[in-house]
Amino acid sequence: MNIVVCVKRVPLTQEVDLEIDSTGKDIKKEPLAYVINDWDHYAIEEAVLLQEKFGGTVTAITIGNEEDEEVLRRALAMGAAKAIRIDPGDLSLDGFVISRLLWAAVKDLPFELVLTGVQANDDNCGMVGVMLAEHLGVAHTAVVTGVEVDGKEAELQIELEGGIEEKSNIELPALLTIQTGINVPRYVSIMGIRKARKKPLEVIKVSELGLPSEDLTPRTMIQEIYLPPDTEGAEMIEGNPSTVAEEIIRILTEKGVNV
Amino acid sequence: MLTPHHPATQNYLGLPGYLFTWIIFLAGISLFAFIIYRRSLLLRSGQADPRLSELGRRVLGVITFGLFQKRQPRYFWAGVIHILIFSGFVVLGLRSLDLISHGLGLPVLAPLMNTAFGHVYGTLKDLFELIVFAACFWAMLRRAIVRPERYSDSHAFEAYFVLCLISLLMLTDMAFEGAGILLGNANGQGLPASQWIAGLLSRMSRSSVERIYISGYWLHLLVFFFFLNFLPLGKHFHIITALPNVFFRKLKKGALKPARWDVEDMDDLETLGVGKIEDFTWKNILDLYTCTECGRCSDHCPANAIGRPLSPKRLTMNLRDHAYGRYPVFPFTGKNSGAKPGPIMVGGVISTEAIWSCTTCGACEEECPVFIEYIDKIIDMRRHLIETARNPTSFNQVLMHVEKTGNPFGKPAAKRADWIQELNVPSVRILGEGDETDVLYFVDSYASFDPAAQRIASAIVKGLNLAGVDFGVLGPLEKDSGHQVRRIGEEGLFQLLLEENSETLKSIQFNRIITTDPHTFNTLKKDYPGNFRVFHYTQFFQSMLQSGQLKPGKALDAHETYTYHDPCYLGRHNSIYDAPRDIIRSIPGMNFREMTKSRDRSFCCGGADIVLWYEIEQEKERMAVKRVQMARDAGADVIVTACPFCLIHFEDAIKSGGLEKDIRVVDLMELFISTL
Amino acid sequence: MDEILVIAEHRQGILRDITHEMLFKADQLRKSTSCAVTVLLIGGLDETTLKELSRRADKVLLLEQESLKNFNPDSYKETIFRLIQERQPFMTLIGHTSWGMGYAPALSVKTGYPFATDCIDILVENRRPLVIRQMYGGKVFSKVSFKESKGYILTVRPGAFPPPESVEDRHGEILPLPIPADLPRPRSTFLELVDTGAGELDITQADLLVSIGRGVGDEENIATVKGLADLMGGTLACSRPIVDKNWLPKFRQVGTSGKSVRPKVYLALGISGAFQHIAGISGAGTVIAVNKDRKAPIFRVADFGVVEDLFKVLEAMKEKLAK
Known about the structure:
Number of helices of chain B: 28
Radius of gyration of chain A: 22 Å
Largest interface: A-C, 84 and 96 residues
CATH superfamily of chain A: HUPs
Helix content of chain B: 40-55%
Strand content of chain A: 25-35%
Largest sheet of chain B: 4 strands, parallel
Number of strands of chain A: 13
Structural class of chain B: mainly alpha
Strand content of chain B: under 5%
Distance between the termini of chain A: 58 Å
Oligomer: heterotrimer
CATH topology of chain A: Rossmann fold
Helix content of chain A: 25-40%
Shape of chain A: globular
Order of helices and strands of chain A: EEEHEHEHEHEEEEHEEEH
Distance between the termini of chain B: 78 Å
Largest sheet of chain A: 9 strands, mixed
């Protein structure tokens, strides 16, 4: 079974205090380290697991510059057979444009499944996957936590809110957006990633995709980004742990909790 | 002296005795040559390993540790027994040659034996035969009655069998000589053993004595050649391989081997670690030949002591069994040769949990009388597990953090020097490219980001300032030294860190490097190729003490008793035992006591790598908890350590055991600063 | 047609809160958009719910049919597409839920309308919407504008627009619609729903929840926290990362993909305050947060905050309670 996985390289921001850059439309990126998008990491692993079970090839695809090839190499090291990088040049991107670029590169590839992450760590949009599905004209479902392929169908587990999961069937070919926790992505060592250089990585320029300008025009624009206003929120309890503990217990008792 | 009645001169079944000696000799030697050849095939299938550096030091080691058995008395009585038997072998080798050569009709040693030397040697030989015989008997008694724990899963049958064979060798010669005296074929002067036997046999008939005389000789010959050929088949191969193994031993303690010695560029390698037996180096394989199953390694292994599934002895024995199974001496007898391949080596023969259990503390290598190496083998197997993605998943994020942010916490590299401000540490120069300084203080990740370790860094800086030292730190330019990463088995990532740090270090002019922790010290000194002058802070401040630049003034509270825990990477791996003790003893009012297991027998606190991110299920208690108990047993109120990881583990153990009122732990630098 | 179309979301016969939230926001946008508020209900619900809906919208469009009883991305997409073609609403609001995310982007492609997700505020300027949404896991807010179009599609964050207790009755008209004849066969089939949050105990019943997040560090530290929880008569709960790591079972998870809780006191230890978690405690009486990071988002929503190592506070509390 042939699977296409869309991956993205995003900045690592978990422990970082973000700062707005001079344009006011993005964060300062130089001090940041870059990693593979969490959700896409799970998507690649799921694709490789399916490929190990059913045979076929996994193709990883990303949109980015040369440095972004790092995530493709990770996918190759994890088990993808080949990778494609679409070089956007100076093009302004939004979810719609990204989905069109991906469509142009993916439409002629053979596949039973296209996997993407539910969303990306940077913009948290969660739209590219299902948009791509519509362009490709395939069935689609989001937030998938389990995939069992059976011939031309797959039984899916979907995470709904409140601890409820849905089980449903979907016809292949299909596009699924993959949720974190579906598997445990295998570790690839530095040497493993270096070895992946032997696998094919194709670079396609946007101009080669032959898309009309309408497809390359963003439909949403970021006007500005800003940091959240300072905490008006909590009333801070100061003091050493002992004082703090006392105060917490006092609050608990006051609110009617029997400690 | 070949008397007319020498057994070889007599006829048996119409054939001359010489014929039989020659048959036994030729058969014995050929079989032995064949067996050794077969064993060499396995050895030669191993990878390259350069072991001819510092020849003088190597020879000295053979003399000290080989001939003089320096490590044996670490277990006193067992050591004594072994030294006696070993010395016996050394002395009696000549006797066996003499007996055989006589039997072959080529008494080459006769001229030598006819001199005064021969007389002295005769007495010596007799004495040693008695000594060895008694030692073997004592050894068997010890095994049967005392039953030391460390022998528990060794091959007991082989042990007793060989002790019996050796005893038989002694007895047969004594019987031959003793009977010879009675028959008038030999002069009993100065031969106490033989005379004793002669005395025992004196009441027997002449023909019986003759029979004993003859059978003593032939039996001796047969047992000798049987024993010779038996040696390479089991743990007594060490009799042949021990001295070479000591000669070829690892001289650079604490260093790790590269992926392959003979391949510079790791990209050229198909695999990085050890997955099959042939991936080990020839020296690793020689180690397997040399294991005597004495169990001293496992006896001191802290992982073993707390119930983890790691026993260094079993590791070596299992690898040996697996190797012999794949390369049997007699073709088609191997367990793992032929159609059915048998369990995989890494993950099967040696369980992954055993491989992750090791803290690389080096206690095993410190004990082993024949210098078997364990750490490199384990690390090599970890490299294989990492490259086949069979590592605990808790490592994934840590390794990603180290790769992307240069520290295992995932904190942005730009914040690496924030501790300076956070802890209000004055006067710390942050070095940039092209800067010059006397001392480069390599803080490393834990001291930069972990609160407990940051306090040590703060104390070190205070000390450097008080002593007026010109120093600086690398700040955001510094990446993790990689000691954890390398010992987890991520060799590729380690090399990346090494390259980046080396670049940075090259761009700065400095005379010396000092480090917060012994692991960083060890890695910069042994794993990094540049020849830096690296010191751990204990060495550095001890020299400040000696030169008088720093002097402790304030005395301590007289009520508290202090003890010192030797960190593995300061003590065992780098033999730095006295510098920290000098600092401690220089403090006025110091009331100091050593723990029973101290210096090179220090008990690991838990370690600086895997233990932080992965728990071995079978573990019954924490190493740190056990060690804190040892400190309490020594009557200490305070444990002094010189490593931030020891500090973290001990603080943890004290907290989780509720022992805050009984004992506390303090880092040596913090203690030292508090007295200045 | 100057209309704001709200797509109702319902599950197991119950209308989900997001529907009311979107209707509330749509109502607020009436003036600036000069639009009426229409709600589309695919599949059937009981009389009471229908009445409730009709109080909050000007029109209730009803598409009832056996085949549309359960959610299905294709059916919803195709049905709403046809409706949008016919009615040309100015804005279509869909819940930013698993189901919503499963079809809304496809719908935007089909209609050609600009599309933004997970909006936490919606403004209208010069007859064009402007939305506020979060990026970088909630660390940053962004204001997003759209290319000019006849219509726009937005998914709305659950909990962003909590409606007041009582709303003015709009006396909406209930209009049953015919099922479009040319609906293509859906390519997925609903099988069943499974409650994975069920477990040996129900954390939604507790008065005091002692909840842990990534700040707990190691799995073995959980026992320490449980010790305190037991001492206080509280129940142990956690955020998503703890369950993802398999350190605690799913029934203890609080948040969007876990449980919504309303304890008297919610003690959040080492929880940063990711939006999905906050969503689960919006009904809590008092939230006390302990976190080493002064800038942790949880301090924005907690009632009381402590910037300290949670283990130090734990220790101190244990000591005080032991007395």
